[in-house]
Design brief:
Blueprint lengths: L1 H22 L12 H37 L4 H34 L13
Helix pairs in contact: 1-2, 2-3
Length: 123
């Protein structure tokens, strides 16, 4: 029961941080929802500022949970196997996300593109 409470508090803190980063600081607040352009601009800002950090945090939590599960159960082979799968899954998720992030950085540097959130005309 203590593990569940600890994990839910940790995930709740990460959720609060990632979603307040997008909504509470005024970064995504200046979009109007009167037309489709404003909605798309707000959605792209929300994805960039809230969803992507949440996915990174979720992969990190999965990795850490796998390490904890693996090392706290040296006699239970089934739990160690489950922990190992969380470790591998978290590492693969982090590797894929960081690789995509690096590829985007390389492409924006190579083609001298601006590395900002795109704004559709008509805003």
């Amino acid at each position: 029961m203590k593990k569940i409470v600890l994990l839910s508090n940790f995930i709740g803190g990460i959720l609060m941080f990632s979603f307040t980063e997008a909504a509470g600081t005024g970064v995504c607040d200046n979009y109007s929802f009167k037309n489709i352009t404003g909605v798309v601009n707000w959605a792209s800002c929300f994805l960039y500022k809230a969803v992507v950090p949440f996915l990174f945090a979720l992969a990190t939590v999965a990795f850490i949970w796998g390490v904890i599960t693996y090392y706290l159960n040296p006699e239970n082979e089934e739990k160690r196997k489950k922990g190992k799968s969380f470790i591998v899954g978290g590492l693969i998720a982090l590797f894929v996300m960081l690789s995509i992030w690096g590829l985007v950085s390389i492409l924006t540097g190579t083609f001298e593109l601006s590395n900002t959130i795109p704004q559709l005309p008509g805003q």
